[in-house]
Amino acid sequence: MDEQAVSIQWFPGHMAKTRRLMKESLRLVDIVVELIDARIPNSSRNPEIDKLVGRLPRIVVLNKSDMADEQINRQWVEYFKGQGVFSLAADCRSGRGLKGFLPLVQQALKGELEKRRARGMDGKPIRMMIVGIPNVGKSSFINRMAKSKRAQVADRPGVTRGKQWVKIDGNIDLLDMPGVLWPKFEDQQVAEHLAFCGAIKDDILDIEELACQLIKILVAQYPQMLKERFGIAGFEQEGPYEVLQMLGRKRGMLLAGGEVNTERMAITLLDEFRGGKLGRISLEKPEDITHGE
């Protein structure tokens, strides 16, 4: 088994279309709400969005924060604060953390809202564009804010394909955009982290190699979670593929002749990571971001 980093390149045509659509729609909104994955805040921030949004006010929502290390979530909120960016950690499926969202909007748009009041335009809706990579939880966020199931939700990338407006309480309109990645992953670790979290479709990946890369991280940083979740021991000195075999054997995933079905175990491991079943895991910390990125 090749344990080198998985080489990932993926930019479907509909994502190029989404980028154009986003650029055209920015003139319609007052603020951009960028959802990122709290487990991989750096990798799940699309640098294309920085270029497109420019100086328009922005709020960053660290979604899926219930699956990430709580202490590291706080570090990221402080990091964004230091960058002059409004942010909050939330779980959009349950709504945890979202009570602070609308007050944050008021802060971010303070100057604009004061101008409206001075002109007697209090009734004008606040229009927000919701952006983020595939499978980051934009639809869950919109449904939670709208208090109804307005946007389609699925635990896979590529569900939202066209823009749609959703009205919520407080005279606010949300513009939901399809998830968009960027043309080229120059940093393969970024691509790998996105693949771990389900932002890239599994059918273009070598799933066993991807699981082995995740195992390397878990063994190095979260060995106790592997012990507790799978009931294995003595794996610290083993290679990732050998650990994958240990996990499959422990789960009884055996083929004829007693060989471990490593593909099935790889799929299971990634599914359990993505579902938060392994525990609260953060793959990135603010300190990992090098100066000059």
Secondary structure: elements and pairs:
Blueprint: H1 13-25, E1 31-37, H2 47-53, E2 58-63, H3 70-82, E3 86-89, H4 101-108, H5 110-118, E4 126-132, H6 138-146, E5 164-168, E6 172-176, H7 188-196, H8 207-221, H9 223-230, H10 240-250, H11 262-274
Parallel strand pairs: 1-2, 1-4, 2-3, 4-6
Antiparallel strand pairs: 5-6
Helix pairs in contact: 8-9, 8-10, 8-11, 10-11
What would you say this structure looks like, in words?
With 293 residues, the chain is an alpha/beta fold. Helices cover 39% and strands 12% of the residues. It contains 11 helices and 6 strands. The protein has helices at residues 13-25, 47-53, 70-82, 101-108, 110-118, 138-146, 188-196, 207-221, 223-230, 240-250, 262-274; strands at 31-37, 58-63, 86-89, 126-132, 164-168, 172-176. Strands 3-2-1-4-6-5 form a 6-stranded mixed beta sheet, with helices on both faces. Helix 8 (207-221) crosses helix 9 (223-230) and helix 8 (207-221) packs across helix 10. The longest helix is centred in the last third of the chain and has 15 residues, at 207-221. The protein starts with 12 loop residues before the first helix and ends in a 19-residue tail after the last helix. Residues 1-5 and 151-161 have low confidence and may be disordered.
The first-to-last residue Cα distance is 33 Å
Order of helices and strands: HEHEHEHHEHEEHHHHH
Q: What is the count of helical runs?
A: 11
Strand percent estimate: 5-15%
Radius of gyration: 21 Å
Strand order of the largest sheet: 3-2-1-4-6-5
Choose one word for the global shape.
elongated
What structural class should be given to the helix and strand makeup?
A: alpha/beta
* Total strand segments: 6
Share of helical residues: 25-40%
Unreliable stretches, pLDDT < 50, 5 or more residues? Answer: 1-5, 151-161
Largest sheet: 6 strands, mixed
Give the overall pLDDT as a whole number. 86
